[in-house]
């Protein structure tokens, strides 16, 4: 067997049967985890209450305010820090005069919705195909294995850009982003689930269920899925921040969310032309994007060290699952 | 080894065929008439028909795909206006927009992306392996915890965020660095270097975080092995232990990951290139996508896919070369 297969395909030991509550308590005992959790909670609240927040401010994310721009300076907002005022809490967008605060909080919606949605799509496809490969016939396993191989070799960013551009613009962009990121990123999950299934299949309770005449579907649902929850959750926690970055990246390149809908990546792509005259406009979406991704990464890392005994015991870590598998890089828990 | 390579080469061809089939199916079945696109908005129906014939788009899809494959293996001819345009062997078609051959367009941009990727690689290896080693040796101290936090943050920043911030601070405010630009190495090495320094660092800072974490865990793993304890018991100095033995444990995964990253870089440099306006493969992709220039997009997807697959094989071979415990079969 080739070394890459051995590395990526080697089954992680099934997660310990630690109760969910115990894991929670251990996670919350860490200060970094609490801080990251707070950031995520704030973000979710902000995203959920976006229309309310902008209503309190008295602005909306789409109306232009040309009167607040200095047309002599090429459309830079008048006033300091990008036009910060009592009416516009974080200033206005250069060139258009749209309210930055309103666009940022509405951008949080897109960012979270797309990232969470894409993760769900990735996990759903990955679990289904992984289970099918692990439980199905040899032919099916081979077929799914080859498809996974192709998906891993597909230059996903290049492919995503092209797909986003080919689909007509009247198709909902956030939904399209979710689907494209989701459909291109399931290969890692499928590999993980297949390897887990193969090792779980050897266990006594699965064999007993099979001998008792349980169908494959029933075995998958009743015997395997509960044991798969921990490793899949861990992997999903690692996928989530990369999906936030993917959304921002595609919108940054101009193929993601289109105006008037706002997204942090899209704001940043606008910022590339304004960074000299209006640095505030660059810093705000940058900081938010960074905080979001960092918070999710910290949480994902913590969940992984809690749920994955291999990473925690620092046994055989330090290999990578390939370009498509983020976070498979083993990290010794300090 | 030879058998392994042969098998891998076969697999490589298979994966590329699959990629090309997927790409072809998606883009050629996509809404929008390529002939109309190639001809432009103001074309009359007769002109569109002419273009369709010229580009071979009147044939059924499977024949078009066969022609496309034939072009890659044996080259093909296009009737361009009055004369024939011959497109030699690895022919990926002709751009709808400029009429240029896709292979030529890619070849012209390749040095830019290669410069970007290779330069960044040097920096990320030095930074990443150095940081990882340092944090492995100073485990538990304040500096190490700071480094670990930094590398975690490093994996969390998108390249266009760190690039923009560096651009503002180093180029616009402090004026320590010139604004990024691309000058061919053969033309002016000094300008090539200074123009690419910021893009290199933006890419490398993010990549190096991954390498730091990898190096750290590999070094810690090796230092925990039995033979190291034996060496230590025999009185081998700590410095020698680290440089001669622990680093060797990190060598294999780092080299393999480098090969993989270089391979994917040809596709994923698109964000860096569009941020800094470097005329590389990624920039070409974004432009072609904007113009809905399908042959160029298909060609670029295939070429970047080829790089990824090739990098995988190279990584496997390097793994076996640097770690004798690994046997290729």
TrEMBL record, chain B:
The chain crosses the membrane at residues 9-30, 112-134, 146-170, 190-206, 249-271, 291-315. InterPro entries: BPD_transp_1_N, MetI-like, MetI-like_sf. One of its GO terms (biological process) is transmembrane transport. CDD domains: TM_PBP2. One of its GO terms (cellular component) is plasma membrane. It is a multi-pass membrane protein. The keyword Hydrolase does not apply. The keyword Isomerase does not apply. This is ABC transporter permease. Residues 110-319 form the ABC transmembrane type-1 domain. It is found in: Cell membrane.
